[in-house]
Amino acid sequence: MPDATTNGHDNGTSVETPALLDTLPGPEHDWRITLKGKIIAITGANRGIGLALAEVCLANEAADIFSLDVFEPGEEFAALQKLNPKRLHYIHCDVTSEESVNSAIDAVVSARGAVHGFIANAGMTKHQPALDFSRAQLDQLFNLNVFGAYFCATTVARRFIDLGIKGSIVFTASMTSYRPNRAAPSAPYGATKGAVRNMTHTLAMEWAKHGIRVNSISPGFIKTAMTYFVDQAPDWDLKMQYYGGMPRLADPRELGGAYVYLLSDGASYTTGIDIPVAGIVGAW
């Protein structure tokens, strides 16, 4: 195999390939697993998993976190903002609207002059038998979980390219993209997250030449307002006894380390992968 810095011909000459060299880490590269100095945007970060990710990113020295959310911030967001004055911000954004996403990303860049990382986290789920789903419910799931994630990724990738930033995009996928959720099945939800994981691999391949990395995280059972009922089921303990794994739901902040790694310069050669964070993976 020819060296990556040659033209591939064994003629005694070596020709540098600027497009490839441009994606290599520079002398200013930070080899620590840290977000120091980075501006990160997270969709759906006013509550739930998104807010927990914002907290972990702030704890890992992110310069600024922008929550792009369709809902107004609540008390939990305000409490985290108070602990991190001038570092946690909110911008109204409907990720199912390309215009809204463009406006939100422009607002981040206008406020701080750059964006270095993006977490496409906004999403929803609905658990019911497949035969009970209406077309309207399917449209809602796919518009938010798939089209919304796609609009966000393509919009921020254009900004990375325009600004010459080797940015990182991380999708929130799900363990249901691998196998059914036996505790709360939803064929359409699993299909949306399967689409997100496939997008991860393809976009990573397309954008690698720009130094843009694209990865995803697949959470297992995480304790949020959307999953509060899961471990309250009367047969939960029995399921855990037979399925194995960690017999509990995760604190959403337990996901944060994987996101921080993928957003950091320490992951400069990590792209196109999915990281399952599911301590009870045996339950799926």
Automatic annotation (TrEMBL):
PANTHER family reported in the protein's UniProt record: BENZIL REDUCTASE, CHAIN DEHYDROGENASE, PUTATIVE (AFU_ORTHOLOGUE AFUA_4G08710)-RELATED
Keyword Lipid biosynthesis: no
Keyword NADP: yes
Family named by the database record: Belongs to the short-chain dehydrogenases/reductases (SDR) family.
Biased composition (Polar residues): 1-16
Stretches for region Disordered: 1-22
One Pfam short name: adh_short_C2
Keywords, comma-separated and alphabetical: NADP, Oxidoreductase
Name of the protein in question: Short-chain dehydrogenase
Species, as recorded: Aspergillus nanangensis
